[in-house]
């Protein structure tokens, strides 16, 4: 097979204005069409102003020559035209800006939804951990996108209003002397290129600013958030955090501020230079008026048009807003392109095998953006309908193995087979529903206890006796008895409920996983399920858990060997691969790493017990 080389040339990204208008049309077609219509109408107004004022001055000549009422029709028509132009010049921008607000808000809502969908849709966690996605998500959460897009759409309108009007004014000047009109246009274009380049530089200098600001706000939030409050007090961290916040904030904005002052200087200088050129147009105009080559009416029309061209000079922060809004839209499109699942329905995948062993076949894994191999050459069979305990020192890759099993990441090398079928071929959503899990960082939902458990299988009918059974199996029944409103108690002091101890919360997490098992999950993954429990609770709980998951494949990670020893199979991970496997007795008899770890822990318990 010959290797094919890609000759595709990367497409030039669309200019920000085009991106913004396309996305605005996609989101609010009628609003954007009205906006473009208003811009088109406004564009002809300066030309109308020039023509109407010229006509009015011309009609005054006629009045002098022919008197009233012969010249009355011309005067009244010109005056009415002028009045209409003034009125429209007043009203149209107001309408356009109001519609721009509406379109900007609609675009913001749509984009926030699109970002969240694009990040929530994939079964894996890679996207969420990608720095670019994190920045977008932070922007959505912090409402930064809202400001971006509204300002950008309003910016398009502001710039559109003045530039369109200036273009039409230049066209009117063509009727005077073509070289005057083209000369002015050329000068404006040069000034615009210089100023746009500066804004572009300002935009580039803002790169990384949101990340810097997010770090600063994170440090500030730690001073006031409840979870950090204890450590902030006991270690006296408040001043350090506030100092860090100020430092990060200033660092994040330093480059932007420096660039901004440069932009203002160059904008003022180029504006003055071009305005001087604009004033020069009045020299031939005045000469032609004096020589009689131009009538006062035509002189007025061209003079007004020359002033109208000044719109090209407007270089406001709107240019920056458009740039930032365009960047945001580009990032959102890129994010969606990277997640085709959000754009097209997923291809049909194979059904989940209801039972069967799970095989890690030569699996190697590196986290995205990391060069370190966490797992390498890992061969492991997790028997169906049996319990497998995974042990190893901190950082050995035990949790990573479970994350791969859940399909949060794809193996970098090798494959994971479920009953002989590659995990990649299974429907990821279905597979994840098939796995019930208690992770080390299980979520403490600030919701009633009942919801905290039922969220293990949302939509599954909640029969009271099933819930009670799950509560007994997870040791939650003792906790419920102490709660003021039993199952209905809200587990959050923030929402007028109660808070639980660490061990009690862990039982809630266990109950949630068991509820998923009750609803049909075939694999139960427990990552340190008893880390917060007292020794008494731990010993009995593991037996209860196994009894509550009959016929299920249980994978247990634990540093507590009194729990581990009960598993059907124990696997020792080290150096990214399996170094020992067997049941407790076999591994103890082998006298290897497991036996050493078990003996150290048992010794400690014995010593503490004797003491
Ligand atoms: N999201 C991540 N991105 C990059 N590296 C990670 C990520 N999560 C974990 N790691 C790295 O992978 C290695 C294995 O971590 P893992 O959590 O799997 O170990 P573990 O055996 O479960 O440890 P412990 O017993 O402390 O829970 C560690 O070196 C860790 O730094």
TrEMBL record:
- GO MF annotations in UniProt: ATP binding; ATP hydrolysis activity; ATPase-coupled lipid transmembrane transporter activity
Q: How does it sit in the membrane?
A: Multi-pass membrane protein
Q: Which GO terms describe its cellular component?
A: plasma membrane
Species whose genome carries this gene: Micromonospora nigra
Q: Which UniProt keywords apply?
A: ATP-binding, Membrane, Nucleotide-binding, Transmembrane, Transmembrane helix
Q: What is this protein called?
A: ATP-binding cassette, subfamily C
Under SUPFAM superfamilies, the record lists:
ABC transporter transmembrane region (SSF90123), P-loop containing nucleoside triphosphate hydrolases (SSF52540)
Task: Using the record's annotation, list all stretches that form the ABC transporter domain.
Answer: 358-600
Tell me if Transmembrane helix is a UniProt keyword of this record.
Answer: yes
* InterPro entries in the cross-refs: AAA+_ATPase, ABC1_TM_sf, ABC_transporter-like_ATP-bd, ABC_transporter-like_CS, P-loop_NTPase, Type_1_exporter
Source organism phylogeny: Bacteria, Bacillati, Actinomycetota, Actinomycetes, Micromonosporales
Q: Where in the cell is it found?
A: Cell membrane
Q: Which residues cross the membrane?
A: 33-55, 75-96, 176-195, 263-287, 299-320
């Amino acid at each position: 097979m010959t290797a094919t080389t890609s000759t595709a040339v990367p497409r030039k990204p669309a200019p920000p204005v085009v991106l913004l208008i396309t996305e605005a049309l996609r989101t609010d077609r009628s609003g954007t069409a009205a906006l473009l219509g208003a811009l088109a109408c406004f564009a002809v107004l300066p030309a109308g102003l020039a023509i109407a004022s010229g006509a009015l001055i011309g009609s005054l000549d006629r009045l002098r020559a022919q008197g009233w009422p012969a010249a009355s029709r011309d005067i009244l028509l010109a005056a009415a035209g002028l009045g209409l132009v003034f009125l429209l010049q007043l009203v149209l921008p107001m309408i356009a800006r109001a519609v721009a607000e509406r379109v900007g808000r609609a675009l913001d809502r749509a984009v926030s939804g699109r970002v969240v969908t694009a990040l929530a849709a994939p079964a894996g966690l890679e996207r969420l951990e990608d720095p670019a996605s994190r920045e977008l998500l932070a922007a959505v959460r912090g409402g930064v996108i809202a400001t971006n897009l509204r300002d950008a759409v309003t910016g398009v309108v502001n710039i559109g209003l003045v530039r369109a009007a200036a273009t039409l004014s230049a066209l009117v000047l063509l009727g005077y002397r073509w070289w005057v009109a083209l000369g002015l246009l050329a000068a404006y274009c040069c000034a615009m290129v210089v100023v746009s380049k500066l804004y572009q530089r300002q935009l580039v200098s803002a790169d990384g600013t949101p990340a810097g600001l997010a770090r600063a706000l994170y440090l500030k939030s730690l001073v006031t958030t409840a979870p950090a409050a204890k450590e902030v007090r006991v270690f006296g961290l408040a001043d350090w955090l506030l100092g860090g916040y100020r430092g990060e904030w200033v660092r994040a904005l330093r480059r932007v501020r420096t660039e901004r002052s440069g932009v203002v200087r160059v904008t003022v200088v180029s504006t003055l230079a071009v305005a001087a050129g604009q004033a020069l147009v009045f020299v031939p105009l005045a000469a032609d008026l004096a020589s009689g080559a131009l009538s006062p009416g035509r002189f007025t029309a061209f003079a007004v048009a020359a002033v109208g061209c000044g719109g090209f000079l407007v270089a406001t922060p709107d240019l920056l807003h458009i740039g930032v809004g365009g960047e945001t839209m580009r990032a959102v499109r890129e994010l969606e392109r990277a997640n085709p699942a959000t754009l097209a329905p997923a291809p049909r995948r194979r059904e989940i095998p209801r039972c069967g062993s799970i095989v890690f076949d030569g699996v190697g894994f590196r986290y995205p953006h990391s060069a370190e191999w966490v797992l390498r050459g890992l061969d492991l069979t997790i028997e169906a309908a049996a319990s497998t305990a995974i042990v190893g020192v901190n950082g050995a890759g035990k949790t990573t193995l479970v994350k791969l099993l859940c399909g949060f990441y794809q193996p970098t090398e090798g494959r994971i087979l479920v009953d002989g079928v590659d995990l990649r071929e299974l429907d990821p959503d279905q597979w994840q529903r098939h796995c019930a899990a208690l992770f080390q960082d299980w979520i403490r939902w600030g919701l009633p206890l009942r919801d905290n458990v039922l969220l293990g299988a949302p939509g599954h009918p909640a029969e009271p006796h099933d819930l009670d059974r799950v509560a007994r199996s997870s040791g939650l029944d003792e906790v419920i008895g102490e709660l003021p409103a039993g199952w209905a108690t809200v587990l959050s002091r923030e929402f007028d409920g109660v808070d639980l101890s660490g061990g009690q919360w862990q039982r809630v997490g266990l109950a949630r996983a068991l509820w998923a098992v009750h609803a049909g999950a075939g694999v139960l993954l427990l990552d340190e399920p008893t880390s917060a429990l007292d020794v008494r609770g731990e010993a009995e709980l593991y037996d209860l858990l196994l009894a509550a998951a009959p016929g299920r494949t249980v994978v247990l990670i634990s540093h507590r060997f009194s729990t581990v020893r009960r598993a059907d199979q124990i696997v020792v991970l080290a150096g990214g691969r399996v170094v020992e496997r067997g049941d407790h007795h076999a591994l103890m008899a082998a006298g290897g790493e497991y036996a050493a770890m078990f003996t150290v822990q048992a010794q400690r318990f014995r010593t503490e017990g004797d003491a």
